[in-house]
Each structure stands twice: as structure tokens, then as C-alpha cells.
Amino acid sequence: MPHIIVKLWPGRNEEIKKSLADRIAATVAEELKVDKGDVSVALEEVAREDWGDKVYKAEIKDSPNLYHKPDYEYE
User: Fold this and answer.
1) Where in the sequence is the domain holding 52, given as residue range(s)?
2) Based on C-alpha coordinates, what's the Rg of the chain?
3) 40-54: per-residue pLDDT in tens?
4) What span, in angstroms and rounded, lies between the C-alpha atoms of 49 and 47?
5) For a tag on the chain, would you pick the N or C end, based on fewer CB atoms within 10 A?
């Protein structure tokens, strides 16, 4: 506990993805006052052309669990 899933467009190298996951884990651990070893972070790449249907409409738009909303929309 907790487990974080980050969905992003493809194109970042493994070093960048590992750094991002480490920083997210550290921040989450600090904010929730848990050990960093208790935090897991997954990165899922989603093709740009699939983002609107697979991520925005399915998980972002109208989600009551979203605490930080993006400045963009998909129709």
C-alpha cells in the first residue's frame, strides 16, 4: 500500500521512467507517512491516438476520484 499507476504516451527511455517512478514513490511515502518500500509505481504507455478513449473518457472525464484535473478535454 499504496500502488500508483501512471499512464503516459510512449517515448521516454527507461532511465527517465525509473527516475519518475522513484520520485513519485518518495513523494507518496513522505505525504502518507509510510516507508518508501511500501509504495509501488507502475507506468503504462498508451498510444497517443488511443488516449482519448482508453484514458480520458474511461478514467478522467467525470471521475469522482480525480483530485487534479487536466487543462484539456477530448470529445
Assistant:
1) 3-60
2) 14
3) 999 999 999 999 999
4) 5
5) C
Question: Is 64 in a helix, a strand, or coil?
Answer: coil
Give the pLDDT score at 45. 98
d(CA 54, CA 46): 8
Structure-block grid coordinates of residue 29? 511515502
Catalytic amino acids?
2
Instruction: Report if residue 16 sits inside a domain.
Output: yes
Measured between alpha carbons, how far is residue 71 from residues 43, 61, 68, 74 in Å? Answer: 21, 12, 10, 11
Domain membership of residue 73 (yes or no) is no
What are the residue ranges of helices labelled H in the chain?
A: 14-32, 51
The rounded distance, in Å, linking the Cα atoms of 3 and 30 is 14
For the chain, the residue count is 75
CATH number of domain containing 13: 3.30.429.10
